[in-house]
Amino acid sequence: MLWLLRHAEAADGAPDDERPLTERGMRQAEAVGRALARLGTNIDACLSSPKLRAVQTAQRACEPIGVEVTIVPALAGPPFEVSELTAGLGDVLLVGHDPSFSLLVHDLTGAQSRLRKGGLAGISKGELVSLLRPTELAAIAALDLNAV
After folding, report:
1. What is the CATH number of the domain that holds 10?
2. What predicted TM-score, i.e. pTM, was given to this entire model?
3. Number of domains within the chain
4. How far apart are CA 29 and CA 70, in angstroms?
5. Quick check: helix, strand or coil at residue 71?
6. Which of 45, 70, 80, 104 could potentially form a cystine with 89 if both were Cys, beta carbons 3.0 to 4.6 Å apart?
7. What are the CA-CA distances from residue 107 to residues 6, 81, 90, 104, 148 (Å)?
8. pLDDT tens, residue by residue, 82-126
9. In what order do the strands lie in the sheet with 69-71?
10. Has residue 146 been placed in a domain?
11. At what angle do helices 52-62 and 23-38 cross, to 10 degrees?
12. How far is CA 79 from each of CA 24, 48, 82, 134, rounded to the nearest angstrom?
């Protein structure tokens, strides 16, 4: 199973590589991890883009499921070869950016999708089996994204 997680909401500004998550983004990332845990998802590895917003998203999402985050520079932007990145890793969560991830969903499944910030797609054997927005992940996680 391949999971694609677009980084959560990040602050505006430059340099682009150093943009941190907003408070809402931190809650979105936490909701992903809690939702994956509640759903009993088995993830063997987490690979993240080195951009700060992706790393922060990966760390918060992987904490509840007990998975270490590995930084993979290729995930910072296209092109990258998924099969090379995930070879021998089992079920993998990739954390990165759009438009790369929405295009990847299409390339792997033929599905047209737009992965929202903090959104999650699940792909198995060339089929899009799950496409969840941050609000749906928060509902599964029983987490209020608007809490102060």
Report:
1. 3.40.50.1240
2. 0.95
3. 1
4. 16
5. strand
6. 45
7. 16, 11, 20, 5, 39
8. 988 999 999 999 999 999 999 999 999 999 999 999 999 999 999
9. 69-71, 45-48, 92-96, 2-6, 120-124, 127-132
10. no
11. 40
12. 29, 15, 10, 26
Q: Can you tell me the distance from the alpha carbon of 50 to that of 72, in angstroms, rounded to the nearest whole number? A: 6
DSSP three-state, residue 96: strand
Owning domain of residue 34: 2-83+93-141
Name the nearest CA neighbour of 100 among 49, 60, 134.
49
Contact predicate 61/5, CB 8 Å = yes
Four-CA torsion 12, 17, 18, 19, nearest 10 degrees: 20
On whether the CB atoms of residues 102 and 109 are closer than 8 A, the answer is no
**HSE value, Cβ hemisphere, 13 Å, CA-based, for 15:** 4
47-84: per-residue pLDDT in tens?
Answer: 999 999 999 999 999 999 999 999 999 999 877 889 88
Which positions ≥6 away from 114 have C-beta within 8 Å? 98, 102
Q: Does 147 map to a domain? A: no
Half-sphere exposure of 95 (CA within 13 A, CB side): 30
Answer whether residue 88 is part of any domain: no
Query: Does 105 fall in a domain?
Result: yes
